[in-house]
Structures are given as C-alpha cells and as structure tokens.
C-alpha cells in the first residue's frame, strides 16, 4: 500500500467511532423524532461535512444504552459498503449519546411522494434503485446479518440517486443452525408470509420478501399489500398471489397461523394486471419480482442470485 493509500485509510478511520466531540457538531435542523430520540441535520465544523446526528436519550433507559442502538452500532461497524449508510462516529455524553451518520437528502418514501399524480420513476431509475438495494442487502447477508425492517422509510437517497440502507435497530446476526427469533419484526406491509403465519425460525428470505414489496412500490408508487392487521395482511397477500398449499409451500399446513384458519381459496393473479405502471418494466423485471414474492422461503430468490438475474444484465457491475 502506498503512502497516499495509507493516509486515506488513516483519514477514514479517524472519521469513525470515538474521535469526535459533540462540540464539533452544529445542529442545523430537526429531521425526525421518535421513541429512540431525535435526528438532526448537522455540520461537522472540523471537516465542514454535512452529517445526520441521531441523539439517543439515556436517562429514560434504566438498563443504559437501548438494545436497538447497541445492535445498530455493532452491525454498522461490521459493514462497509456503498449501499449501506455509514456510521461515522459514536459520541457519549453523561445522559445521552449521539450517532453520527453520513447525510442523505431524503428517504425512498418521501421520494415516491414527490413524484405526484400521473408520474412514475423511469425504468432505468427503478432498475438502479433495486440493484443498489439488493447489493446492500447482499452485503448484510454475506456477513450473516438480517436487517428485519426493510421498508421505503429506511432506505435513503442522495442527490445523484445513490441508495443506502439505514436503520439497523432490528437487525440480527444469524448462524447455522437457525435458532428461534421473535416474529414481531418487519413493518406489517413488508412482512414475509412465514412471519405472519407464526414461524420463529427464519433467515435471510424475510429480507428478500421485503425487497419484493419495495420493488413493487417503486414501480407503482403504492404498497402492494397494505393490510391493517396481521390477519388482513395475509388475506391481501393470498388474494393476489393465491392461497398456498403443500404443493407450492411444503410445510405451510404445519404453521400455527395457517392451520387454525379456514382460508378462502384464491388463485394467483398475474402481477401485470395488479401493479400500476408495471408495463414500463420488461419481462425479466417482472420475472424477478415474482421470484422475490415466492411463498416458500427456501425457494425465494437470494440476494446473490438476484444480482445475477437477467434483469440486471445491462447494469455496470
């Protein structure tokens, strides 16, 4: 490694984890607020970089730092990828802590909302967003990390349409064999059917289902499955994709959430007749969507397989 590379590496390390002080950061405006604390747009007065500053209050946490924050820090320390948001620093104060992130202009949900009636994303942008999203998911899965809360609000976009996955508060490392996890993860509209039907043994396919739902929403500008309860959510999935049986999803009848209900038998519908603006997507793009929304998690396309799909044959890799 030459001297310039050494300097670049040192400079990169000095922007991450413990080199900064809160006095170095100026708050510009509030971006959002939730149970965890407040997110600000800010300025690093030393580097003059615009950053996002997440403030987490500690005085309300009887056990110290919230578990979601610990997870987010530990996961983002493991991942250095252009399609995963960069955690630049962690700053501890007496009653609060700050996470310093790179700043991006808006999230995917806001971007969709800005399109306005009658407009949709150009096919090239749809493909670019999806490729970047799957690339980021593949980076997580290759490190044995499941995001578990992929949704448009957790996907950030920059001024040049660069896309980065954010909010790893529900992320989880997994191992082999898979052990039981909570099923109370993933925002309802993007939650995989195996979770809705009660399984606690799941893995990376739950993220790929979410990717499929997000892909459909990028195309159509509206959620594909917008249930108002777990029961309503699974019913809406069955109405569009058909009611599964042992032929299409071996073992489905053994899931508690499936065998306790007498389900109306629906036949699968052609997604081309369901999703608005899907005519802008070529046959390969529709095929990839169908593979992301396969019921059987063992047959659902993986992130690595998806990146190799013919839909992305013209993407520069």
TrEMBL record:
Transmembrane segments: none
A biological process term (GO) from this entry: regulation of G2/M transition of mitotic cell cycle
GO molecular function: ATP binding; cyclin binding; cyclin-dependent protein serine/threonine kinase activity
Pfam families (UniProt xref): Pkinase
Known catalytic reactions: L-seryl-[protein] + ATP = O-phospho-L-seryl-[protein] + ADP + H(+); L-threonyl-[protein] + ATP = O-phospho-L-threonyl-[protein] + ADP + H(+)
GO cellular component: cyclin-dependent protein kinase holoenzyme complex; cytoplasm; nucleus
InterPro entries registered for this protein in UniProt: CDK, Kinase-like_dom_sf, Prot_kinase_dom, Protein_kinase_ATP_BS, Ser/Thr_kinase_AS
Taxonomy of the source species: Eukaryota, Sar, Alveolata, Ciliophora, Intramacronucleata
Organism of this sequence: Stylonychia lemnae
UniProt keyword annotations, A-Z: ATP-binding, Cell cycle, Cell division, Kinase, Nucleotide-binding, Serine/threonine-protein kinase, Transferase
Positions in coiled-coil regions: none
The protein's assembly and partners: May form a complex composed of at least the catalytic subunit CRK2 and a cyclin.
Name of the molecule in the record: Cyclin-dependent kinase 2 homolog
Annotated ATP binding sites: 54
């Amino acid at each position: 490694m030459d001297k310039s590379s050494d300097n670049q590496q040192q400079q990169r390390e000095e922007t991450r984890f413990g080199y900064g002080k809160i006095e170095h950061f100026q708050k510009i405006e509030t971006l959002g607020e939730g149970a965890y604390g407040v997110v600000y747009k800010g300025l690093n007065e030393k580097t003059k970089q615009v950053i996002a500053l997440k403030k987490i209050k500690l005085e309300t946490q009887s056990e110290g730092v919230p578990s979601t924050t610990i997870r987010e820090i530990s996961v983002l320390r493991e991942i250095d990828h252009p399609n995963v948001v960069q955690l630049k620093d962690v700053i501890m104060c007496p009653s609060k802590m700050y996470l310093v992130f790179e700043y991006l202009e808006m999230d995917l949900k806001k971007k969709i909302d800005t399109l306005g009636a009658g407009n949709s994303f150009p096919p090239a942008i749809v493909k670019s967003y999806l490729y970047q999203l799957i690339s980021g998911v593949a980076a997580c899965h290759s490190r044995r990390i499941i995001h578990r809360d992929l949704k448009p609000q957790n996907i950030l976009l920059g001024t040049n349409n660069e896309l980065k996955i954010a909010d790893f508060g529900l992320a989880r490392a997994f191992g082999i064999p898979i052990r039981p996890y909570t099923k109370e993860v993933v925002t309802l509209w993007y939650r995989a059917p195996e979770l809705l039907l009660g399984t606690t043994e799941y893995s990376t396919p739950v993220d790929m289902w979410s990717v499929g739902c997000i892909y459909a929403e990028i195309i159509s500008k509206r959620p594909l499955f917008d249930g108002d309860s777990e029961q309503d959510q699974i019913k809406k999935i069955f109405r569009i994709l058909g009611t599964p049986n042992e032929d299409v999803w071996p073992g489905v009848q053994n899931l508690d959430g499936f065998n306790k209900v007498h389900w109306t038998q629906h036949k699968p519908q052609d997604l081309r007749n369901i999703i608005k603006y899907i005519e802008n997507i070529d046959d390969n793009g529709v095929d990839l969507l169908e593979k992301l929304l396969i019921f059987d998690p063992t047959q659902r396309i993986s992130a690595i397989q998806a990146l190799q799909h013919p839909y992305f044959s013209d993407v520069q890799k």
